[in-house]
Design brief:
The complex is a heterodimer of chains A (243) and B (439).
Chain A (H helix, E strand, L loop, with lengths): L1 H7 L5 H23 L3 H25 L11 H38 L7 H23 L6 H27 L2 H19 L7 H38 L1
Helix pairs in contact in A: 2-5, 2-6, 3-4, 3-5, 4-7, 5-6, 6-7, 6-8, 7-8
Chain B lengths: L11 H24 L23 H31 L3 H31 L5 H20 L5 H19 L4 H20 L4 H12 L7 E4 L19 H8 L6 H9 L11 E4 L47 E4 L9 H11 L2 E4 H15 L3 H25 L6 H27 L6
Antiparallel strand pairs in B: 1-4, 2-3
Helix pairs in contact in B: 1-5, 1-11, 1-12, 2-6, 2-7, 3-4, 3-5, 5-11, 6-7, 6-11, 6-13, 11-12, 11-13, 12-13
The chains are: A mainly alpha (243), B mainly alpha (439).
Chain lengths: 243, 439
Amino acid sequence: MHRSFEIIGKVMTVAAGIGYALLALGPSLSLFVSVISRKPFLILTLLSSTLVWLVSLIVLSGLWRPFLPLKANVWWPYTLLVLSSVCFQEALRFLFWKLYMRLEDVLDSFADRISRPRLFLTDKLQIALAGGLGHGVAHAVFFCLSLLTPAFAIIALAFVTIHTFSMVIAFEGYAKGNKVDQVIVPVIHLSAGMLTLVNFASEGCVIGVPLLYLVASLTLLHCGKMVWQRLIESRNQSGPTLR
Amino acid sequence: MESSSILDSLGVEIIGVMAPVSICMFLVVLLTYSLSVTSDPQIRTAANLIYIENPSDSATVKLEGSLENAIVFVVLVAAVTFVLVLLFYFNFTNFLKHYMRFSAFFVLGTMGGAIFLSIIQHFSIPVDSITCFILLFNFTILGTLSVFSEGMPIVVRQCYMVVMGIVVAAWFTKLPEWTTWFILVALALYDLVAVLAPGGPLKLLVELASTRDEELPAMVYEARPTVSRSHRGGSGGGGGTSLRVLVGGGGGGGVSDSGSVELQAVGDGATHNLDYNAVAVMDIDSVDGVGRSREGHSASSVSSEHSRELGSIGNRESVAEEEMSPLVELMGWGDNREEPRGLVEESDNIDRGIKLGLGDFIFYSVLVGRAAMYDLMTVYACYLAIISGLGCTLILLSVYNKALPALPISIMLGVVFYFLTRLLMEPFVVGVSTNLMMF
């Protein structure tokens, strides 16, 4: 904390600090309290996805360490950095999904063994949500909480939204083999990363941040639409049989 | 409308252990930040016997000195543990229990009192000394009573365990930096040896306790899940989702030995009362818990206490610091058929649950507290490392079904992540995000 204060170079009161932290993490906190803290398994999912994100960040920083610190005014190394990071994280997301499929099988066989119903659609969606929230919280903590300023907090909020809901889209996309969903997630992530590059230019953040929020709300809308469709589908499927 | 899914109660026991560990770490970090204690070079404790670290020393001097400190510390802890084994062997159990109570009183009263005083000073809380003394006295007495008594509600006992962990960890964070890291690693290695190697003191203690079918005198945090068992037509599989079934079944149907015995012993496929009782580290508290266990392994934990004399402000000498050795143990417990139905609820709620030694709490919090002195990023990284290490240990516990050391995996992961974050990640993230670039 002392080092980060040196970097920012200003004195921050505790209230302001808490305010900025809540700006970035407020929605995720409410999501956590309302959805995730109810089921212990989701908390475990959140912790493990946070760990995965942390590991990916460590690997990336290990790869880029020899090239740091980058020169401040040249922007193309940063592009390369963002590009490579996004690609790596998307690849990791796919691996995460593979792991999750394995876990789903284990859970289903466990459910069979104790004669309980298998995982519902809502369960799977909740697990995906917890995974995405884990990524988002990890992003907020590492990119925002150490250097608490309003700018970081605002950008972090957008990214938290993007990470949380793109995980849901990605899981459903991989599960259904839906190409659109599968492709749209890396595209969103990449465009969000690139948009922050716009902040490099002076006064760039006036354009960059609203566009970022546009991307975030697009993610939210797409995810909502997809989930709604899936729920309607499954309701139609199971409806006749229940009666 | 639909029957509840398995996701509702899966993993309750793990969260029941991780939550207090997280709370303890969080409060220690908060204490470290708000009190901003820098290591006081005048304190000579058992951890500092050989070498007092001076920030201006060269790296090699610090390295050697810290290594010597760590080795001496571990030797002391091992010696005290052996003394404990001897005392237990000669049936001095009551003496040990009373000594534990005394040390709980001491820890809460003096060390906890010192922390309260510094909090009062730091935040300028207006309270007079008599009120403060009375409050502290009440607090301490309640803590002492809650440690080994049978009648206390479990919540009080759990809170006091966490408070004691916080108090001791906050004192440990006053140690100088290099010494702290070396001590943590040395203790993790010692724990591994002491619990698993044939001649290790903790292993001897476990075996003694199990052959005599007694509980060990020790301080342990008991996490009793409050999931109610739903009895559906004789099957009690409701609340007790068993990690062992999950893990054992995950191995392609090849359940681990004792697990399969219990699975089959229960009889019909619908009844799986597999609630495993993981006993962590020493706990004498298990009068109502471990004592009634039917399986052999009893909780083994070495209790070492951290006691310190506080002399005048000028010279402080410490008495031997005994550590609470962390130890995580799983007790298999499956068959409930013999119990009459009415008793099942009660016995389930008492016997079930994971126990984690107080030493685990302390050293996890010390690691995170030390990470907090650098930056928030390292705190988060170390927290995740420790929690995942704890999760791995719990999974191993359900697989191997015997006493396991809780320190090694978590501490090793924590140290690795701390140094990786500090050296690699921080320049990367700070360099990227100060330009308002994120991904």
